[in-house]
Inverse folding.
């Protein structure tokens, strides 16, 4: 994903949950089924994208990603929420509700 298309995506009206991950990260791999299920359940209300920090170091540095997985929720270019660590689907849904994106 090019930087421009990433920037356009996070500045859109549709909220975007970005999963900063790494291929070598076990907990990151464990989040895949959670994010797949979440994506099916929220449909087009929230876009979920994955950014490999090893392939997109500039993006990881720009958003001060210090560990993986790190999740960042954007809407119209604004960070609504950011947190590192493993989360359940319910926790992520609750954050979407709390931040008014669902």
């Amino acid at each position: 994903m090019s930087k421009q298309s990433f920037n356009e995506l996070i500045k859109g009206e549709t909220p975007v949950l970005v999963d900063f991950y790494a291929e070598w990260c076990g907990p990151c791999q464990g989040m895949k089924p959670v994010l797949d299920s979440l994506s099916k359940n929220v449909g087009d209300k929230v876009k979920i994208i994955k950014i490999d920090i090893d392939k997109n170091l500039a993006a990881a540095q720009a958003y001060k990603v210090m560990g993986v997985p790190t999740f960042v929720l954007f809407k119209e270019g604004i960070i609504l929420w950011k947190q590192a660590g493993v989360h359940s689907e319910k926790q992520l849904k609750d954050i979407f509700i709390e931040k008014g994106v669902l």
